[in-house]
Amino acid sequence: MDRNSKEQALRLHECLDYIGLRAQATSVGLLQLCAELVAVGVLDDDAVDRIKDAIQHDITVSRPRKHGQMEFETVLRKRLDAVFPRVADPTIGIRVGTACDMKVAMGDVSPVTAPN
Predict the structure, then answer these.
(1) Exposed/middle/buried for residue 74 (C-beta within 10 Å: 0-12, 13-18, 19+)
(2) pLDDT tens digits, residue range 18-31?
(3) Which of 3, 47, 71, 77 is the most exposed place for a label (fewest CB within 10 A)?
């Protein structure tokens, strides 16, 4: 992510955090809105990718640790790709793995010590 994109994502993150729009309900609403707009042809895959990019940038700038950053970003993107709709399949809610898988990707737990 370039410096300008990172600064914009950080400002937006701080603004949303300030007004309290970090709830899962907001995320569910966004996913449903995207699915509805994809289903009627208002959003294409490129538009959904830009939405996922914005989410990924915000999560990346709010993450305190920097070790394992590339692995974290790769796993995060796979999970975003799984839950957002595509033109070929405008459904949402596909399985994305366990919370433990994400903890391993974030470096909170090593793969060897992670519970199954």
Answers:
(1) exposed
(2) 666 666 668 878 88
(3) 3
